[in-house]
Fold these 3 entries.
Entry 1:
Amino acid sequence: MITLRKTTTLFASAALALTLTACGGSDSNTESSGDTTTNASSPTGDTSPSTDSSEPAGGDVAESAWLATFKKGIPELEGKSDDEIIAAAKKVCDDFRASPDAATAKKIVSGLESDLGIDSMKANLFIGGATGRYCEDMSTKFLDAQMGG
């Protein structure tokens, strides 16, 4: 029964990862293109860069959508800053990339449980989204490691 529950949780995590990847799979480390937008509130049609406060500092709308999805799906993240969530997601990738095995996968899950104050199911959902956003090449490897493969 435990194995079935673990398998179901992992597949649910994978499904969420695919959903979150659809919100934007580009790496936020890429430089912005420097495009300018017309400032509609300017009577002269100013083409200075937009300063819309709804966008993150880097102007990555996909990352904002990714963060909003996580904060909505994992309510415990509401009290965390965007930087904390992004750092935790990137740490998942860095740690697993350094040692892609079952022991590391287990350590990452327990680390997220204590660092973010979430249960193991939500930690697995977070991992699915983190790997989908920041290290897509590791998503399947992480799942395999958790399944003991």
Note: The first helix runs from residue 2 to 22.
Entry 2:
Amino acid sequence: MEGNYMQQNLVYDALENYALLSFKEIDPAAVWEFPYFKTIFSNGDPMRDANPIFSARNKKDGTVFKIILDEDQGELHTYIHQGVEEKVTVYLMDQTTYLNKLKGLFAEIAGHCAGYKID
């Protein structure tokens, strides 16, 4: 997928839809609520700032994660943000890493929440 997602709405929308469709593949039982963080302005227009480009919350155990695209990050970086009400696992990556590793990352997240780890 070529193009600058921060300047081209079609590219951004395609990246966002890729995540939605990919996550639906690993969540057939509808255990997750996604997108969890609503990234729209008060007038209803989408923000399209890639923070986050995708987010989800596990309805059973409350696990929350979000994916942020940041071209300065390069490969995948992970950190935990402890908020007042919830802990959020944040995955930072660039567009290339996002396209190459997203499905594997989703499978790993789903596996951890189901009580097993995918190698």
Note: The first helix runs from residue 9 to 26.
Entry 3:
Amino acid sequence: MVSPLQVIDRFGNVLWENRHPNSCFSNQPVALTCQKETIDTVIELSKLLNPEIVSLNENGFDHLNGHVKVEVKASMFDGKTLATMTGKGGASCIAYKATLSDINSITKVVCGFPLDCSIEDIKETIRQLTSDGKELMSYNTKQRCGITHEPASGIDVFPAAPLHSY
């Protein structure tokens, strides 16, 4: 599903903001498929959508009133899809670099965790760990930051998880 979040002019002024992005009235399906949700399905759909998303982010599109710059952000996925898209199937937290001890620390939970785990960070970690020919899964979970495979997504994924701070 795609839901526009806001329209901003070239000066950074918000011209319009979607106050109900989770509403069925503001969402449009990107692809409909009738099959079991598996890693292979998510990877297949990501390969289909990633080039278009990257192109929109880089080039925008032309409209009657001029050129429209686009920033596509992915969110609102369930845990299984998030793990596949990010490659962090063994992570304590998919969107953060938090460890298991971090998420069990009341002090750190009260402060909240930053969105600090980008797709590029994940790919770089994989490159560093496998540069000597060693298999990714030969490292322990902490060493590989919970990464279990290459990310299926070519763009950063922002989960809408509300309970990372209180």
Note: The first strand starts at residue 6 and ends at 8.
